[in-house]
Amino acid sequence: MVPQTRPLNHHGHLLSQPQPQIHSGSHFSGHFQLSEPQTRTMSHVYTQAHAQAQAQSAHAHFQAHTQPVQLHSVNAGSTPSMSTPGTGNSKRPTQKPPSRSAGNSYTIATSPFKTMELTPAPRRKKVKLPEKQLPDKVAALLPESAIYTQLLEVEGRIDAALARKKNDIQESLKNPPRIQKTLRIYVFNTFENQNQSGSDQKNVESPSWSLKIIGRILEDGKDPVIAGAMQNYDSTYPKFSSFFKKITIYLDQSLYPDNHTILWEGARSPALQEGFEVKRKGDKEFTAVIRLDMNHTPEKFRLSPSLSDVLGIETDTRSRIMAALWHYVKANKLQNSSDPSFFTCDPGLRKVFGEEKVKFSMVTQKISQHLIPPQPINLQHRVKISGNSPVGTTCYDVMVDVPFPTEKQMSAFLENFEKHKDIDSCDELISAAVKKIHEHSRRRSFFLGFSQSPADFINNLISSQTKDLKIVAGDASHHAEKERHSNFYSQSWVEDAVIRYLNRKPATSEVPRGA
């Protein structure tokens, strides 16, 4: 008999590894039995999912025959490769790029391969719009412009408020709030080709069974599939496999000696799944043990008995445990009045830390030895090969933390916050209008000054243009009238300036006459 595993519609693959078998598991308190109508509903849902999985498998099989790609199957300790038809067993030689010898700067030019360094594109800077503020002279001429100034002030306050909200949302998304929901886990099995007669065994497949593990978040304490409210089910809930770090299934070692332990690890399977299925060939009943290692986000710890007695907490996150400890110290007034960086240990804390007083900065280090990973959940399922299929009406309810429903809305708000096309276009129109107002204001001042005193205006204009011309030509520091007098060259800095000038001139070398 060859052991097989196959996925159920978006369900995860279970890796088989030899590990010690667990013969007994702790009794889980959250289990209960389904009624017959509920069992038939679950069977109908599974049948539809199984048909969809077969259709996807057929489509993938067709693509595998039409595209010559290599498939690699991973087994414990070996990695045999399987090639599709048309590729054969020949191995392609490994190609290496030509190496460049040290010191040869012309190898890149003659090499048929060119190395390219990819650098990140420079971040595009936002175009800085002109000033929106109106000139004071324009505001004095138009009293109605005070309304525009008030609107600018309101816009500034709104932009500041949005910037603060954006920062708050970004911080909350780094540590998203979570609420507790009930995850209902269904464990059942189906079977095929059982109870065959001797004459029929030659024409049909070998007897087999399939073990399924699926789960869904309950809405108001009801399963949306059984209640017929699947259209109202929140699709933003995490998938079933995201709630577990590792799932281990232990089969009967006497029936499956070579491959009795089946392991799935979330770290090795980045794709999230809605459930799992294990299929094996066999015609004997046995009890399977399922071990579920929960994946808490953020990570939770189980407190030691001494720390749990002090804080009254059994399992929680590290941050909440530290907050509870600080609240305990504050409520019992244990902080040292002379040195606030220390706190005095009461009899309960002395059992935890073993000291009379502890420094606050050392609490994180000392408390780590009292934080233990939470215990896994052990379930048992009797794999039956007779009676109604599917077999198993037992359900298990587990409390899990799911992201707050508003997280998706906050992410959408941040995405839309950067796409203010309408606001940007209005800002551009306002800036263009203000720019034109500035231009018209300068032109008005120009012609108004000319009309009041034409001669003085022209003289001032020529003087201003002369200064600008000297600055452009680089002669702004020259004073022609002063340089005409000999006293200008009798100043103390002239001698030093002449020496500096002569030292800057290049020395001319004498050329031999016979050359």
UniProtKB/TrEMBL annotation:
One of its GO terms (cellular component) is nucleus. Residues 16-27, 73-113 have a biased composition (Polar residues). Residues 296-373 form the DM2 domain. Gene3D superfamilies: SWIB/MDM2 domain. It holds the Pfam family SWIB. Coiled coil: none annotated. Signal peptide: none annotated. It comes from the Eukaryota. InterPro entries: SWIB_domain, SWIB_MDM2_dom_sf, SWIB_MDM2_domain. Residues 1-32, 73-126 are annotated as: Disordered. GO terms for biological process: regulation of transcription by RNA polymerase II. PROSITE patterns: SWIB_MDM2. PANTHER family: SWI/SNF-RELATED MATRIX-ASSOCIATED ACTIN-DEPENDENT REGULATOR OF CHROMATIN SUBFAMILY D. This is DM2 domain-containing protein.
